[in-house]
Recover the amino acids of this structure.
């Protein structure tokens, strides 16, 4: 089976409903379902495709569109296994000891299951994918205002994050690779509310896959004879798993032949760690929901006790129903579920453990932006730039007030008022510097700067070997990029903080 890797970058917030319900606040999944990528290709290719090609591409499981999980340093990530447990009260996964449930020996009696989050091959771990909440309201077209009692919220995946997904081609379907690439690569819209402010993504093909991009196959997946003789088989759900019985009804107790034709044994429910997830997908073509699907959730771990003398044989990498939409991915005896003799988890996570939001902020991810063309867009862009500038000025003034203000605390408000007036009149930082600090040589006619002449200069600025004047000059030079507005704000803040009683006592 050939796999093609793609990177999907969110150019706007993305919304993928965790439930079909439309009441109340709508929470998004923390990944992008593979059905969205199947829908992109179907929307562009289905109408013109040959019936047999359409059957291969979208219906009979020859082409499998995987879910997109959060990318960490460009690598593909995996859902955290539900078989990990930590002592109650200790929640720093990667720093505190974790036990593998089906292998633990002598562990504390009070253990807490670790749920949620993603990790990659080298141990990067993200506990929460970055999301952004927005409050919305239904619109009343007749009254041309928001509808009464129609408020709701969207908890969407935050823009700027990248996700990695695969498209797998079974034997005989390799010829569809170029068609799939053309349909997927580029700027696309996916998810809910994609005709409004949500859903804009950029999809790129990953041509060169690094060696540490994904986990290597385990010995049992490679068909190693010694591994095949093991009495236990651990099955990790990389994606949701949906199993159907002989009558086509969803079941949570799969037959072992689902995973391999030679498997014989039983599921050890006491050692397995499962969570179920029930959902109803939406068919955009029919504009109607499909039948409900009952699944084992991502990260679930099944432990199989094999019959003595049986061989594992061939194992299927994708199992169950709805494989084309991203369901059914499994790993057998994965290396990241190994433990020592006491049952301690041996896979090492990197610490500290940041959230996706923190990681995104640290990285300073820059989105592709286009210059607005309309008058409204240009106006909003100017307001955004001005608001960001005001934030930087306020932050710079706050830093000065914390670290340097005490040296200038007893300068009178009237003196700060004159400085503020000069900053308001100055056309540039250079003009302001001359207006405040200009000092002419002896014998040259003209007027010195405001702070270099008169009684106020001798009383406030030229004392202590000119320390006050040097402090003000230094901060104006440091924040030159903020213009004269920084000096205006600083002077106003210093005047308000003046404490007459304290200065008189000093």
């Amino acid at each position: 089976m050939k796999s093609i890797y793609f990177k999907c970058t969110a150019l706007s917030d993305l919304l993928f409903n965790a439930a079909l319900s439309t009441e109340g606040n709508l929470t998004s999944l923390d990944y992008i379902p593979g059905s969205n990528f199947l829908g992109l290709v179907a929307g562009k290719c289905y109408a013109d495709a040959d019936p047999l090609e359409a059957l291969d591409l979208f219906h009979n499981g020859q082409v499998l569109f995987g879910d997109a999980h959060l990318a960490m340093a460009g690598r593909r990530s995996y859902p955290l296994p539900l078989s990990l447990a930590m002592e109650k009260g200790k929640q720093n996964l990667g720093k505190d000891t974790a036990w593998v449930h089906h292998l633990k020996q002598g562990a504390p009696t009070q253990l807490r299951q670790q749920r949620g989050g993603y990790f990659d091959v080298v141990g990067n771990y993200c506990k929460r994918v970055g999301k952004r909440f927005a409050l919305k309201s239904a619109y009343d077209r007749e009254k041309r205002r928001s509808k009464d009692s129609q408020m709701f919220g969207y908890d969407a995946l935050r823009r700027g994050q990248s996700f990695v997904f695969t498209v797998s081609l079974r034997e005989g379907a390799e010829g569809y690779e170029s068609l799939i690439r053309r349909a997927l690569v580029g700027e696309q819209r996916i998810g809910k509310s994609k005709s409004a402010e949500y859903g804009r993504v950029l999809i790129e093909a990953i041509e060169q896959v690094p060696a540490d991009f994904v986990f290597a196959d385990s010995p049992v997946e490679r068909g190693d004879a010694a591994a095949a003789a093991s009495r236990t088989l651990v099955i990790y759900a990389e994606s949701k798993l949906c199993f159907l019985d002989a009558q086509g009804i969803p079941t949570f107790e799969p037959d072992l032949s689902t995973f391999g034709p030679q498997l014989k044994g039983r599921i050890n429910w006491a050692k397995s760690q499962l969570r179920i997830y029930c959902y109803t997908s939406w068919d955009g073509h029919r504009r109607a929901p499909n039948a409900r699907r009952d699944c084992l959730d991502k990260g679930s771990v099944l432990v199989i006790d094999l019959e003595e003398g049986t061989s594992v044989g061939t194992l299927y990498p994708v199992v169950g129903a709805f494989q084309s939409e991203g369901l059914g991915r499994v790993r057998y005896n994965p290396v990241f579920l190994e433990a020592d003799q006491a049952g301690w988890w041996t896979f090492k996570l990197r610490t500290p453990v940041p959230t996706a939001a923190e990681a995104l902020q640290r990285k300073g991810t820059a989105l592709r932006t286009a210059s607005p063309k309309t008058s409204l867009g240009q106006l909003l862009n100017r307001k955004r730039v001005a608001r960001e500038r005001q934030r930087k000025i306020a932050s710079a003034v706050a830093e000065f007030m914390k670290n340097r203000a005490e040296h200038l605390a007893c300068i009178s408000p009237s003196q700060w008022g004159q400085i503020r007036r000069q900053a308001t009149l100055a056309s540039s930082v250079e003009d302001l510097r001359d207006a405040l600090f200009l000092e002419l040589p002896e014998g040259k006619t003209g007027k010195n700067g405001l702070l270099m002449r008169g009684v106020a200069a001798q009383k406030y600025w030229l004392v202590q070997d000119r320390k006050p004047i040097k402090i003000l000059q230094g901060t104006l030079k440091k924040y030159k990029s903020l213009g004269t507005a920084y000096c205006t704000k600083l002077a106003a803040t210093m005047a308000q903080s003046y404490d007459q009683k304290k200065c008189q006592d000093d």
Summary: The mean pLDDT is 86. Residues 375-505 form one domain. The first helix runs from residue 34 to 45.
